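Folding Task

Wanted — backbone structure
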Amino acid sequence: MTAHTLSEKFVPGRPPDRGAFPLDHFGECAEFQKKYMRCLKENKYDNMSCRYLSKQYLQCRMENNLMAHSTLENLGFKPDENEPKPPRKDDTPRKEQTGYVPGVTEPIYVPSMKKRLRLDIFFPDKKDPDAPPDWHHLVPEREKEKQREKEKEKTETQGNRSV
């Protein structure tokens, strides 16, 4: 490849929306960062309980000129976020916890049938107790009609041969 074609494919990068943030080399805000990370760990990484610490960390960075000054409302914080909130109540099992097997734990989309089906319908050895005993009821009516016509043609041709 020539240099000319390489330059055509080059897309210049875009700076971040809030500008470039210098690293905290002297650890001026490290205490706030450690508190925030500890809070996340204690609350199962639910940031709702730790937003007030995130707010303190960003305030520290602005005070020490480690980031551009901005109102905290612009950064997504509310004025009343100054103390911990209770974590979200979400005890529903997730795919990561229960495991995920396509078509078995969740149905898969079959485009030709325009339906979502579970694989255990097609593989009876892995049958779900709630699954119907036969999958033919899922075939669209048009397919059923085609099958009936083929069967009718077969019986007619067999009847003509015997005469």
